Amino acid sequence: MSFGVLALVVAAGLGGPLLAAGRRGVVPVVVGELAAGVVIGRTGTHWLDPADPTLAFMSEVGFAMLMFGAGMHVPIRQPGIERGLRRGLVAAALTGALAVPVGIGISHAVGGRAAVYALLLASGSAAILLPILEEQRLLEDAHALTVMAQVGIADVVAIVALPLVMQPAKALRAALGGLAVAAATAAILVVGRALRRRAIVHRFRRASKRRGWALDLRIALAILFSLAWLAARTGTSILIAGFAAGLLVAVIRGPKRLSAQVTGIAAGFFVPLFFVVLGARLDLRAVFQHPTTLELTFLLLAATTALHLVTARITGQSTAAGLAATAQLGLPAGVATLGLQQHVLSAGQAGAIVLAALATIALSSAGVALLARHRAATPG
Question: Hey, which of 34, 147, 220, 327 would disulfide with 364, CB 3.0 to 4.6 Å?
């Protein structure tokens, strides 16, 4: 590890904003970051060694901060979210139920763990869908709120279930570790709400805002890393720790400047580093060299699309809503990361999973655009 390697990673991460800079396209920056990692990693030039211990640890920090951001974006307090919550809950449960036999079928067709495929098919990504809806000014649309509720529920359940699915032999320990992280998060929430009412806390926060101490950010990071340490010690994933810390901020309504500060440190460095390193780990040549991994990409994409369209039809939603709900990235990235770390997935399988997830972003963007068009065409 050296400053040269860091410079290379940061420069590669600039591929994300460059690709997302189009005025009309809604391309998340992670697409360019992953692509840059692919170019300089195992698939391309081999300039970046993703196995370097320091780089691997910094990538884990980026992973924790990615999940932290995902938790912060869960629309717990979104105005009107309760209107679509019931239908969204039914849709998420139905998609999950349908994903089980389909996941088994994919496993029989190309090998691999059926439970992992089912979880991927049933999941969603609130962190991807929310910016797309915001871009189209649909955050208050009733149909969009139903989709947002569905994706948010699927996102939470899938993230909690992932460590158990990836390591079934250690399911009990992982479950107990998850409970320990949840209990610690609940305790921090109770203490945090009690302290927020104290005058001395208000004085410190005002001083922090006036003098640029970034006190809220420091506390949030201390909580995040403490929960990540607890997760590591108890045998569960830092994915749960990061997501729990983000949910904590969403519940207590952290100040707007905290969101900006997290964006600075996470989106400015650690999260791009995570995606660049993840891209460097992938072997996309193996996806195209081996028929089974290429088949896995198409099966995951086709099954994800079909399941969400069927669910939309059964629950009385439009085709556009079904397409919008397909958005994935955080969980597939988590599956690829944990799968490679635990040698559950080959580099080709991890690449196939991430490629399928990237394709869902395009489908989701098209669905949201159709929802916006329908709303514009509806009188009143």
Answer: 327
Site of tokens 């397909």: 326
pLDDT tier at 237, thresholds 50, 70, 90: confident
Q: At how many degrees (to 10) do helices 271-281 and 29-40 cross?
A: 50
Q: Residue 94's closest CA among 333, 371, 358, 322?
A: 322
What is the average per-residue pLDDT within 224-244?
A: 87
* pLDDT value, residue 223: 93
Going from the C-alpha of 327 to that of each of 21, 271, 363, the distances in angstroms are 20, 19, 7
pLDDT for res 97: 95
The residue among 262, 236, 234, 237 whose CA lies nearest residue 248 is: 262
Give this prediction's pTM.
Answer: 0.77
Total tally of structural domains belonging to the chain: 1
HSE-CB for 131 with a 13 A CA cutoff: 15
Residue 164, helix vs strand vs coil: helix
Decide if 324 contacts 144 (C-beta within 8 A): yes
Q: Residue 329 in contact with residue 28, Cβ under 8 Å?
A: yes
CATH of the domain at 202: 1.20.1530.20
Distance CA 220, CA 117 (A): 33
Which segment, 99-103, 200-204, 286-290, 352-356, is predicted with the most confidence on average?
A: 99-103
Q: Which of 200, 125, 193 is nearest to 159 (CA)?
A: 125
Structural domain includes residue 371 = yes
pLDDT in tens, 16-51: 888 777 655 556 677 788 889 989 998 889 999 988
Is 40 domain-assigned? Answer: no
Position 48 in a domain = no
Q: What are the structure tokens assigned to 15, written together?
A: 């591929």
Residue 26 lies in a domain: no
Nearest-Å Rg of the Cα atoms of the chain is 20
Can you give the residue range of the structural domain that contains 170? 58-377
Distance CA 15, CA 36 (A): 6
Residue pair 52/231 in contact (Cβ under 8 Å)? The answer is no
